[in-house]
């Protein structure tokens, strides 16, 4: 999933340099006793040891930069200067399966690198291998969304290799990792959303975003609508706006499967979104 980049992120370079300097410091501490070796070895061996330890430190920093950068102070991470580095976003399984993240990333509004922990990827693969057809299709859809994101030049996607934690569930591990990385958590899971907020983790909920950008209508406004089904109450018809908002039309059942001009009467806000109540324009 990792995409090649022309420039290494500053935190990685910083970790490599710190490890290299640490190796050189250890080499310098060994310099006095090694300099007492007889002949030319008194200056060749100390220089060789210092250089070797410095190189070893740089190699360790290169191999383990993710683990080491996680223990750097938040200020050091904030000085990197790049939005993709400073604004890590952890995706959970629900956000990936939902699929809207792929379209959102294409727009360029999403600032930051999308991170998929390996345990989330494992859970997604497990769902895709399920014997339940519906569950299996959801898992495969999630894998297709990840493939689409990885191929999108506007999206930066990274798979995190997180050490295995025995007994911890996926949600708990996501929240813990988000706190460790100072990352935002992208999800559509209501329970995970609330748990993360209690722990002080910033949450990006795609459903809340969708509700926030839904079409704004006010009582008295007129709109065109196609009535597609009958409502629960007698005489009601149901239609939907382009953003998915349900419109209940009083007396609309007689206009079933036809386009209709309606006038908005009132708007009801519910935990799952908005419901608009209207009536046929002719009857307004």
Characterize the largest beta sheet: strand count, sense, and whether it forms a barrel: 6 strands, mixed
Strand order of the largest sheet: 6-10-11-9-8-7
Q: Which CATH class of the largest domain applies here?
A: Alpha Beta
List the domain count as a whole number.
3
Counted by DSSP, the helix tally is 13
What quaternary form is this?
single chain
Tell me which CATH architecture of the largest domain applies here. Answer: 3-Layer(aba) Sandwich
Shape: elongated
Q: How would you briefly describe this protein structure?
A:
The chain contains 13 helices and 11 strands. By secondary structure, the chain is α/β, with parallel strands linked by helices.
List keywords for this structure.
284 residues; alpha/beta; OB fold (Dihydrolipoamide Acetyltransferase, E2P); 3 domains; six-stranded mixed beta sheet; 11 strands; disordered N terminus
Account of the 3D structure:
A hairpin with a 6-residue loop joins strand 7 and strand 8 (237-240). Helix 1 (10-29) packs antiparallel against helix 3 and helix 9 (118-128) packs across helix 10 (133-151). The chain folds into 3 domains: 10-78, no CATH class; 87-212, Rossmann fold; 222-283, OB fold (Dihydrolipoamide Acetyltransferase, E2P) (Beta Barrel), CATH 2.40.50. It starts with 9 loop residues before the first helix and ends with a strand. With 284 residues, the chain is α/β, with parallel strands linked by helices. A 6-stranded mixed β-sheet has the order 6-10-11-9-8-7, with no helix packed on it. A 5-stranded parallel β-sheet has the order 3-2-1-4-5, sandwiched between helices. The chain is built from 13 helices and 11 strands. Mean pLDDT is 77; it is low at 2-8 and 65-85.
């Amino acid at each position: 999933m990792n995409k090649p980049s022309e420039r290494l992120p500053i935190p990685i370079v910083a970790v490599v340099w710190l490890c290299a300097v640490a190796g050189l410091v250890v080499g310098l501490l060994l310099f006095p006793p090694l300099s007492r070796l007889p002949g030319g070895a008194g200056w060749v061996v100390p220089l060789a040891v210092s250089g070797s330890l410095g190189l070893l430190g740089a190699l360790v920093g290169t191999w383990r930069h993710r683990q080491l950068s996680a223990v750097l102070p938040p200020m050091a991470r904030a000085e990197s200067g790049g939005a993709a580095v400073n604004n890590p976003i952890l995706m959970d399984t629900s956000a990936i399966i939902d699929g809207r993240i792929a379209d959102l990333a294409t727009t360029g509004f999403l600032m930051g690198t999308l991170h998929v922990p390996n345990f989330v990827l494992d859970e997604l693969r497990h769902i895709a291998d399920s014997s339940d057809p519906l569950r299996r299709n959801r898992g495969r859809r999630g894998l297709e969304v990840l493939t689409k994101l990885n191929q999108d030049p506007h999206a930066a996607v990274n798979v995190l290799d997180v050490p295995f934690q025995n007994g911890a569930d996926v949600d708990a591990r996501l929240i813990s990792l988000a706190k460790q990385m100072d990352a935002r958590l992208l999800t559509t899971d209501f329970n995970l959303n609330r748990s993360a907020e209690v722990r002080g983790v910033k949450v990006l909920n795609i459903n809340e975003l969708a509700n926030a950008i839904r079409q704004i209508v006010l009582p008295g406004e007129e709109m065109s609508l196609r009535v597609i089904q009958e409502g629960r109450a007698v005489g009601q018809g149901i239609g939907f706006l382009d953003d998915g908002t349900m419109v209940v039309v009083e007396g609309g059942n007689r206009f079933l499967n036809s386009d209709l001009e309606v006038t908005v009467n009132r708007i009801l806000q519910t935990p799952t979104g908005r419901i608009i109540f209207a009536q046929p324009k002719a009857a307004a």
